[in-house]
Amino acid sequence: MSAEIGYDWKGGGEEWSEPWGNSSAQWFGSIFPRIQEWLPANTILEIAPGFGRWTHYLLEHCTHIVLVDLRPDCIDACRQRFAAKSNLSYYKNDGRSLAMVADDSIDFVFSFDSLVHAPRVALEDYLTQLGRKLKRDGVGFFHHSNLGSYAGSMDRRLPKRARKLLTKIGLSESDHSRVPDMTAGIFRDLCAERGLKCIRQELVNWRGRRVLDCISTFVRAGSKRESPLRVSRNPDFMREAELIRRRAQNYHSINEQ
Ligand SMILES: C[S@@+](CC[C@H](N)C(=O)[O-])C[C@H]1O[C@@H](n2cnc3c(N)ncnc32)[C@H](O)[C@@H]1O
């Protein structure tokens, strides 16, 4: 699922957490364990926050958070949702620019469930700028597409219409609107060309068996946090979601939905 043009945002994005039970279960069971090492962080930059599904939790772990999204309705929704807080800055951008962010100012840059849909040029531009915007020992955590690694598969070589039909009749898995021009390897190379270094990459399946996505953690080259790259392939990411969902169901308060 993605927030395509015309998406009504009725659920504020909460609906995308359904495989994990809800956004709280997804945050505490899946996302937080993957970033807790880098938190708290003084200044967090969140790229593409949507209606603030993760902002709500990130706020607990920083003194200031900068939100950048290309959709004005998303930025407005975040302004409303977090109106009682004074430690957020809000920017609508063009999907590529971080000009509003000062150099050497970001301790942690985060993006989840958004850049999987962003074209390679957007990631190239963001990474180029993050080479300067991140503090010396700042850390980045990006969830991005790995769909490009399936370029050679039979269904990916078919015309789009034929592929859609195969998906509809259950003979091919949906690509969940991932961009086809990104892979874990390309992301790693883009980082290296821009003075950044990937230190972790977890290839994960997304709502199916295919390892469509990658979660990359990166730092500036020469940072005290630089370490040899660890790549792991996790085709059980959605099984993990299912276990988290079951636990959330068993332990949720009777007042929660
Ligand atoms: C599927 S929503 C997810 C929002 C949020 N990350 C969440 O998980 O609830 C995708 C969001 O990414 C934003 N977006 C997509 N491409 C972007 C880009 N290149 N730069 C900034 N925002 C982008 C959209 O405007 C939308 O708010």
Structural class of the secondary structure composition? alpha/beta
Please give the domain count.
1
Low-confidence stretches: none
Give a count of the beta strands, DSSP E runs of length 2 or more: 8
Helical coverage, percent range: 25-40%
Helices, by number, come to 7
Report the C-alpha radius of gyration, rounded.
18 Å
CATH fold group: Rossmann fold
N-to-C SSE series?
A: HEHEHEEHEHHEEEH
Strand order of the largest sheet: 3-2-1-4-5-7-6-8
CATH class: Alpha Beta
N-to-C CA distance = 22 Å
Question: Could you give a short account of the major beta sheet?
Answer: 8 strands, mixed
CATH superfamily: Vaccinia Virus protein VP39
For the record, the CATH architecture stands as 3-Layer(aba) Sandwich
Question: Topology, pairings included?
Answer:
Blueprint: H1 23-35, E1 41-47, H2 55-58, E2 62-69, H3 72-81, E3 88-92, E4 106-111, H4 120-133, E5 134-145, H5 160-168, H6 184-193, E6 196-204, E7 213-220, E8 230-234, H7 237-251
Parallel strand pairs: 1-2, 1-4, 2-3, 4-5, 6-8
Antiparallel strand pairs: 5-7, 6-7
Helix pairs in contact: 1-7
The chain binds S-adenosylmethionine.
Residues 2-3, 13, 47-50, 53-54, 69-71, 74, 93, 95, 112-114, 117-118, 122 line the site of S-adenosylmethionine.
